[in-house]
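W.,

You were right to be curious about this one. When I first looked at the sequence I had no strong expectations either way, so I just let the prediction run and decided to look at it fresh. Below is the sequence, 496 residues in total, followed by the output.
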Amino acid sequence: MNLYKIIKQNQKLAEKRNPAFDTNRFAKFLMYFMIVYWAAIFLFLGVSLPFMFEGLVPHMEPYHIMNQGFIYVMLADFLMRFMAQPSVSQEIKPYLLMPVKRKKLISLLLLKSGLDGYNFIWFFVYVPFAFLTVIRFYGFGGMFLYLIGIWLIFVFNNYFYLLCKLLLGEKTLWLLLPAAVFGLLGAAEFLLDGLPISRFTMDLGEGFIEGNPLSFLFMLACIGVMFFINLKLQLRMIYNEIAKKEDTKIKRVSEYKFLDKYGEVGEYIRLEIKLITRNKTVKTQFRMGIIVMLAFSVLLAFTDVYDGTNMKSFICLYNYAVLPIMTLGQVMCFEGNYIDGLMSRKESIFNLLRAKYYLTSLIIVVPFIVMMLPISEGKITLLTAIAYLIFVMGFVFFMLLQLAVYNTRTLPLNANLMKSNKSSNWIQGLVTSFAFFLPFMIDMTLTALFSTVVANIILIAIGLGFIATHNLWIKNIYKRFMKRRYKNMEEFRASR
């Protein structure tokens, strides 16, 4: 327990001693505001769901219906953790030189993760829900046992997330693991008779409420198995990382000679292509973006899950925006590794930003081609696909490239399990969030005010406006970057 306390204290001290601690006061305010905002939304759901369930399914108790949806909540929780929760492997490196057995160290970090506040986020939904539904039949004791069971479910989901995050750090192909798990559960639910998954989770939830020891033992056994798998894999990968030798073999690579005719911009496009194809971190991000984009396109084309107008719009925009957000959202972070060389050439940053804009504009033609699947199935029109393509290429790219001025943390080009990949600051998070949600809000507003065709034409007009003026606003970004270049360069060097 002493080591556990030391780790907690060290993490608090590391946060306070971070040079950005005093400068990011607004970031902390924004973070607390977002916590309160989402807590309010979750509380609203927890209060409103009992009445909604009673109206929709009057012959069933609301907590039975809620328990049937455990799998969907676990999927939502799993996806949320990818955006917010760091993996255990990111916390290991500072403690490897301590006179402590690595097994004990990893066990404590895994235990800390199981007790983390991330596992209580959904209590903002379940506590008011249980208070309004469970307590009237089973009293406070049943409510308390129910919440313990809910907590155990999210602890299990936490360890499953850590396992997937660890494996994904090694190979992008491991993204198929959570996809297969949740896909098989979904197939069993809808293809087999009697909705077996929903029935099982309903019985499990009722077992929690009634204090059935088998329900709790089942969850503890699942947590124990997942804990053991994480421990073994973490140990193995740490030893592999330590023993790994650098690959010094000279590989034959393409020089992309066809880019020579585009001058310095072509040179930087060549640099961007090599950045994507040669470096582990960038390559993994690119592959994950492609896989997610393909998955949602197939779901939109061949299922009825996203047949609602707003959901169709969201998925279409997401298909186009996912790759730019994952790449342009970290603009200049990878360049921080060689920022001094870039700054030695006149207007290099201006041409680099233009190269990023042109290459990313070319890359999002890929999702446009994939969108032919939902178009062929009659889910969306060709005009809609073109409208979202041009809108993202113009407006969304304009927003994301603003980060070139404010991103000041260097990202390792070949990040591994022992290197933290946290490079974001509050501005990066804010701009990325706006780039993701604001276009959708604009689209929803236009759709509400006008017909779909008129809304699409307006989106095209907005996108074309930003595309036609891209040299002007990229020049503006470049000038703002140059005004604070010394500060940015210093922070890039400090964060390497």
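Here's what jumped out at me. The chain has two domains: 35-241, 259-494. And, maybe more interesting for your project: Confidence is low (pLDDT under 50) at residues 245-253, 416-423.

Coffee later to discuss?

I.
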